[in-house]
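Hi R.,

Quick one: here's the DivIVA domain-containing protein sequence you asked about.
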Amino acid sequence: MTAHSSFALFSHAPRGQLGYEPAVVDSFLARARRSFQGETQEVTSEVIRTVAFPLMKRGYEVRAVDAALARLEDAFAVREREFAVAMRGTDAWIDDARESAQEILVRLSRPAAHRFARVGVLRTGYSVREVDAVADRITAYLAHGTPLAAEQLRTAAFRPQRGGYREEQVDALLDAAVRVILAVR
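And here's the predicted structure, written out as tokens:
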């Protein structure tokens, strides 16, 4: 007779705090493991970067899961880069990263406070000043090589502001910048 024991992959959020729903996180990580082992191709670094989990009381601690996802995304990005270089060559990989970086720079070359579309005055978006500050750091990285880690963009958080920047546009640009950073490491 074997005893069935279940264990949590992560610590649970403290009482009174929400955490990620363990069953959903565990299921996603199992899919990611199968993809990394080559059994499927359903999970990529981009899927990992954009995954969202439902919140619940006593769920997995958010920071611990997010840190694990960042490491997992890095591992997938390295593997994807190696595969692309093997299939198309280093020059093609670098050209793709350069093209993506140029698209980001074009967007960020717009004047401050006008880099992204705004939500209506009665709705809240991201703080324009805070987003512009991060945009300036991305520009400095892409144009001058000023140090910037993917983790800094993954964890960027912006206060809400009435009439602020549209969240979807800012999030898409941050994702594109993370892809570039991971591509040129």
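The beta strands are 18-20, 55-57, 124-126, 160-162.

Cheers,
M.
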